[in-house]
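Cont'd.
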Amino acid sequence: MGLIQVATETVTSDVGFVNLIGTTTDDIYMVAFSNLRGANDNAIPYLKILVGGSVDTSSNFRRANVEMKAYTSFVYNGYNAGQNFMYVTSGGTGTATGETAEGIIYLYNFNDATQNNSGTIDTVTHTAQAQTESWTGGFVHNVAQSSNGIQILMSAGNISSGTFTLYRVV
Amino acid sequence: MADDLNYGYKGADVPQSFGNNKGVFDPSDINNLVKDDKWTNYGQLELIETKVITGDPSSVSLDDLGTGYNVHFITFTNMHTDDNRDQNLRVKVGGVTQTSSSYGRAFRVSNSAGGYDDKDATLDRLRILAEVGNATGECWTGSLYMYNALDSSKYTFFTTNNVFISFHPYFSSSFGSGSYNVSNVLSGLEFYPSSSVQRSGTISLYGIKEYS
C-alpha cells in the first residue's frame, strides 16, 4: 500500500469546519486525523459529503457501528432511516488535557457518479469525561453521485485544533 | 552549478512547498528542500523499521519512531506466542518502558463462538488481543495506527484491527482502540506476551507523512 497526499489542513485556532477536497479518481482514499478537539466541551465530530465543493445536506447517511467504551458496556447501533451527517467518534472531545480524537477514515466510490459513496471509520477519543472510547463502523451515503471530498465539523461550536490529511491509496 | 539561492539554480528566490516546487534544482538545493520539508516527494507511507522476531526474546522493541509524524502505522505478520497468551504493548519514554496504570482500551472480539467485549480503563499495559493459540496455523496478524506519539503535549492513541485463531480454537477478529493517558514524547514501543516469549513474527513500523 502506498499513500499520496492530496490535501491537508492543520487547525490551530477556531474554525467552523475543515474541507478535504480531492477525491477525483476512482481510487480508495484515506483520511488520517489527529489532535481533533472541539471548542465546546463534549462536542462530537461529524462528517458530511462534499459535491462540487459544497455540502450535501440531504438525509442519506445510513450507518452501522459499535461504540466501545473502556469504562462501561459497549453500544451496538445503526441508523437506516437517513441522516444528514455521519458520526466520526464515540463521545465528544473535551477541553482538558488529552481530550482529543484521532482516527482513520477510508472513502470508497466517491468519484464514481454511478455508485453510492461509502466509508469505514476507526477512531479513538479521550472524551470530555476523561475516558477512552473507540468507534468502529461504516456508512453508505445512499445517493449515486460523484463527490469530491468530505467536511469535518462539530455537533456544536467550532473546531479548535487538529491535523487532517487526505491521501489517495495506491 | 548552484548559485547562492537556498532553493533553485537561477532566478528569483520563489516560495517553495510540497506539490509546488518551481525552478531548476541541483542536489544541494534538493537537500535543503528535503531538510526544510518543502520537497515534493510523493509516497507518504514511509518505512521506518522492520523487525523479524527470532531467538525467542521475552519482548520486542521498536526504538526508532522517526521524526515529524503525527500518525504511525504498524503491521504484524504471522505473530506466534506460546499457547493461550495475550499480546501486550507498552510505550517507552526516554528508552524506559512505561509500566504505570495509564493505559485504557476498548475492543470487540468477534469469533465463531460469538465473541465478547474487552475493556479496561486503567491498566499497566495495552492488551492488543488475548487467548492466541499455538497449534498449527494458530497465530495472529493485524495492523495498528498510533497517533501523537511524538508530541510532548498530547496523549498517545491507538486504533487496531487484527485477525487470529485462539487456543480453543476459534477463528477470531478484534478491533478497537487504546490510549496511553500521559502527555509525553515516546521513544519506542515494546511488545511482549502475557508470559513466556515471542516465538516468531514480523513487525513493520511506518510513518504517515503529511506536508502542511
